[in-house]
Amino acid sequence: MSSHGGSRRLAASDAVLDVVICTYNRAEMLRGTLDSLTEQTVVPDGTWRVLVVDNNCTDHTQAVVAEYDGSLPGLRVVPEPRQGLTEARRRGLLASDAPWLAFVDDDCRPAPDWVAEVLHFIDLRPEVAGFNGFNSLRFADGVRRPWVNPEMFAAMNPVSGGEPIRRRELHGAGLVLRRQAVIGSGWLDAPYVDDRRGRSLVSGGDNALSMRADAGGDGGGLWFVPQVRLDHLIDVDRLRLGYLTRLMFRLAESRPLIETMVWPASRPGWHRWSIRSTARRTVKAAIGRAAWPDRLPLDRNGSGLAARARVVLFGWANAIGYAVGYARLAADPDGRLDAILGLVAPGGPDPVPARAQAQAGAVTPVISNPGPAGSRPTSAVAIACHNHGHLLADAIDSVLAQTQLPDEIIVVDDGSTDDTRQVVERYPDVCYAYQTNQGLSAARNKGLVRSSSDVIIFLDADDRLLPDAVEIGTRRLTERPGLAFVSGGYVRIDEQGGVLTAPTPAAVPDGENYCAFLRANYVGMHGAVAYRRSALVELGGFDTGLTCCEDYDVYLRLSRIHPVGTHPELVAEYRTYEGSMSGNDKRMLSTVMAVLEAQRPHVAGNPERQAALADGGHYWFNLYGQRAFDRSVAAIRRGSRWSGLRDLAVLIRLAPGRSCQLLSHRTWMKWVRRRDHRRNARLQARRPATVRMGELRRTVPFSREFGFDRGLPIDRYYIERFLAAHRSDIAGRVLEIGDSTYTHRFGGEQVTTAECLHIDDPAATYQGDLSDCPQIPDGSFDCAIVTQTLHLLYDPRRAVGSLNRILKPGGVLLVTVPGISQLSDDRWNEEWHWSFTDRSLGRMLREQFGPGRVSVEARGNVLASIAFLHGLCSAELRTSELDVDDPLYQTVVCGRSIKSEEPG
Description:
Helix content: 25-40%
Oligomer: single chain
Mean pLDDT: 76
Shape: elongated
Distance between the termini: 111 Å
């Protein structure tokens, strides 16, 4: 067949064919493929385009593709972060809108007339489901292997006499498929072969794809067209005997399972045929004739005999593979194969809308400022719910109470067995979507696909949004159109909705977000994030393979490739209670370390990012690993040795250095305690041992946010213990400095009126300086809560006098001040004037309230002070360590004063 590209009946503007090249970290090999496409014989303009699927490459692939901009028709790059050849092909199908797709690997070299011959056959047989052509093997080093012989690939290149012939399936590279046949087959919806992901040699994805296209076509079938020729470059690493043997095994093992996936709906009686076919192939494989005929020559050096031995080896690999595959099939008669041999459910967005999107010819969007100039971007809130129907109404009500109502409210029911559906039915404006239980990632992906707005916020059913969350998120993304998402602050609430704490939102400078995420998850709560939907769709949504930390994974992947931002405003309420997911230390540590490890290829060669990644590993292990380690040791001591040792082995696998350090430290300390008991006198007479500084030998703290970005700061631990001990004083009319968080948390129903004083917040009850606040009437309050404020006032004595003035007779002042502390790294730095001791605070309070009406306590010790200076959080120390008070190391000083009931 000669080239007939110039005689095609299609108009010059018709885009008939998209050549999809899937590539992963083989930039120079990809260059050869692109070169061969630039050398194609002339075909009508606009009839074909080139689409490169970047399968999460970390090399210079993007730069190589950019070199061909203008040289290849319609050249564009589509990212696919989920690893694997099948994932890349699915992305190519979703990003294409041409009626035909040709899947070409980055190690293929199409002949100069390849495109013309493909278009010619499409013109002759437009009804076919798919076809491919002759694959010629080329060896990268030019050395011919006796066991890799063209005759071995008779199944790939059948004898056809130069004419197109029908095939039951297609093998090898260069698959050309009719788009509607693939979409109609359900390939986007059904489980698929996880073909060639990483080091996995699970194979057969091209067979499964072509067989599905055949089942979804209109009876046109599959064809082998010998005139459609391309060279397939075999890399030297793939010519090793062990590699080929394993490949033959995996190909054979997947075959019965592929038939199970593809044929039940289209071939009645396929099961009996599959048994006979599998048995026949197994016997042929065992004698070395499964995939190639008996045509290996014997030369005088006997290399042909050696080749025969190798072929028999491959045959036995096939035989065992067929047997194992059929055994799996027999053990699973109902065809539930999702977890077998890499057969996985479709990842990314919900497959049914994805199929509709593919039918419409959607193209992967790019990040842009949505909508016409001056228009308000549309917004959506997606609520994922699994058996939280008793809290769902609270979440929906918080969305409906927004100052800027979202354009879409979507509740995704992740297989709930409670009254979730009945709760949603009470809200006619809320869209309800149900799926079988697939996990939080899949539920969020379903909400992502069901929405069509420019901005989307994901809310868990047990959390709530503050009234201006949607307005703030939309406004922030509109003001900065280049951002992929913005994150704000949140308030911690208990199961009943009572306020616990309000951590200070992280303020990360522009351009440093990725490194900040490598060190820790500074966002803290997913509901505080507003995404630009197009950026999240481009990323591929949430990883459905993660059972937790899926939001952290998205933060890392998005901040690596796009700018992201932060803002200081509170936008959400985070409900914490016993049994929450974050309480499973071992699972959280295992998942978060895997998420962090996935970023290692992207930090290679960048010292700053490598250091941030190392800091992140230490941070997450300190956060989860220490507690998990303590539980493992406690389990061993209780007698649950197997359980404890198993958990300990998991920790050692995740962080061998740190785990062994903890283990050796525990063993050493146990020995030291015994030695101290026996030889206490001699030990005291010795010179002090050399101190091992370990991770503390650093001049830069772990955090400059007092530990807020790591958890509950150590000073807040002492402050909240102090307020909890005096919660009975927090009653009646209460004034708090800054906001009323602690008033509501510790006062509860005892509080009749909660008011606050702030230096410049218009939302506060009173505005002004505590040192001079005549606007507050005398004798107004039953209680005043002043935490970590007096050190910011140049004249704290006057402030204490003001507090005494505004308290009612018998009113109580609860005050805390910093002792040993780092300084603030924000707007309050210029106002930070003092640090206190228990003596200075006690003297200042007694001057105003009188002797006998003041009690002062100093909290902290040397360990707590060092940890606080480094920015560690309270969860990184034990309670027994925090509750030791050393008057020589005062971290926080707390005071309680009672105003005299006598006038004057």
